[in-house]
Amino acid sequence: MDNITKITKSLSEDEKLVLKNFKTNQSYEIKDLIGDENQAKVQRAILWLSNKNLVTSEKSSFFQINLDENGVIFNKNGLPEENFLKFIKEKSLTKEELINKGLNQQEIGVSIGTLKKKGLMEMKQDGESQVFEITKNGLEYLKNDSLEYKFIKSNFPKKIEDLQPEEQFAFDNLFKRPKIVKKEEVKSNIITITDLGKEVIKNSYFDKELIGSLTKEMLQSKDYKGKDFKIYDLTSKVPSVYGGSLHPMTQVVNDVKSIFLKMGFKEMENSVWMESSFWCMDSMWIPQDHPAREVQDTFYLPYKSNLPNDKDLINKIKDVHENGGNTGSTGYGYKWDPEIAMKSLLRTHTTANSYRHFGKNKITIPGKYFYIGRVFRNETISWKNLPEFHQVEGFIIGEGLTIKHLMGAIKEFYAHMGVTKIRFKPTYNPYTEPSLEAYGYFEELGRWVELINSGIFRPESLAPYGINVPVIAWGLGLERLAMMKHSIKDIRKLIGTQTDVDFIRNYRENQ
Fold it and tell me: Angle of helix 80-87 relative to helix 105-118, nearest 10 degrees?
């Protein structure tokens, strides 16, 4: 049996259905082949035919231009700025008179800006009224149709790469304005039959009905005798199957938990994403007028949260904000507003969880605690920032703790993660003093990357909870740590819509 016959006898009915279209044409747009048939079925058949080298598939795309809703109106009625000029050609008119002639407020506003910029119209005072008067340049302008008007009166759609220089100029000007012209991507997928495919169509077995499987009835009646059987191709490619595995971020979370547990830390519990301003800000002595509370930094929710039932705690926090309470501090010197504290938000840091534990007396002294959770900030998305990310919160509480203990704990943790180049820089936090930022050296980027914010909690932030021993604390972004661990230069390749799917699929580590 020759190779062409083998291929022909291995074809499924769906593959034959697609190939029959090529008896008249060499190529087809895939959408024309699909027609009323099941789309998935036809596309699957095309994939099988492509794997057998019977057809080729060529994808392409181009941008075309069409008139948008305003463009359709202007095509019929003319551009508003040109109508504006025609109305004031004979005599100066006020805005009210232009409205009476059919221009609306928006069209008048656009026209004034456009015409003044080009020097085609002037605004003058006529008694108590402001009037619009055409200039000499405006009169000259009206002698011929503008490039923009010629463009919207021409035929559409247009391919953007086919535009002449004058058309490109007109399109650029119109595209800046709302809903006159629109640019749309048109995708194409051309399926072409190969020489091998043509030979298969000519084969005598192509139109024959082949037996694909034997049934009980066929065996009993022996109807199969003398008939041709379909050949099953065991060498054809099959869809790739990807087994389940842990996401790299999940693996890093597990590694971080393991490291903290080995260092003697206890994990805190909390599943709250929606938090009150009280626990996220006020409880830790962040002033109520702090920039971090602005909407450009924080995602607020249209709900009001309840304050804790512990009235004594609320009063102590109120006092420490207003006058420093019993800490010797002067506080912030304003009147603390419970309404601000009741605002709901998506938590901006996991430190809120630490203060919840302080407020509920869920810690022991001395002690070491950590917590991993998601936080949300109104960040500009970039290679190192996302509006949603994971933060690791940790603190150590006990007598005699200093800034050296803080730096040592941070270095020890990062050493376990394989990050040995660490340096510190003083910073400012409302609730810690002194405060430090830690930077790690990112070999792939050849630069230092901020990893952690840390410090010693201020007495004002601890006094309401009856804590009078030092607390050294930190909060670190887990995604940046994962970037360093996996040598990823852009955080968006790890999490989000731009994730490197191949990296995620092929990721394996201790699984």
Answer: 80
Q: How far apart are CA 355 and CA 285, in angstroms?
A: 11
pTM of the model: 0.54
**Residue 18 carries which side chain, given as an amino acid letter?**
V
* Distance (Å, whole) CA 45 – CA 14: 6
Instruction: Tell me the pairing of strands 27-29 and 181-193.
Output: antiparallel
Rg (CA), the chain: 36
Q: Classify domain 249-506 by CATH architecture.
A: 2-Layer Sandwich (3.30)
Q: Kindly report the length of the chain.
A: 511
Write the DSSP symbol of residue 497.
Answer: T
Say if residues 101 and 91 touch (Cβ distance below 8 Å). no
452 closest CA partner among 466, 468, 435, 465: 435
H or E segment and range at residue 193? strand 181-193
Residue pLDDT, tens place only, 402-439: 999 999 999 999 888 888 889 999 999 999 999 999 99
Decide: 81 and 111 in contact? Cβ < 8 Å. Answer: yes
Q: Dump pLDDT digits (tens) for 473-505.
A: 999 888 888 887 777 777 787 777 777 777 777
The tokens for 115 are 């015409």
Q: What are the residue ranges spanned by the domains of the chain? A: 249-506
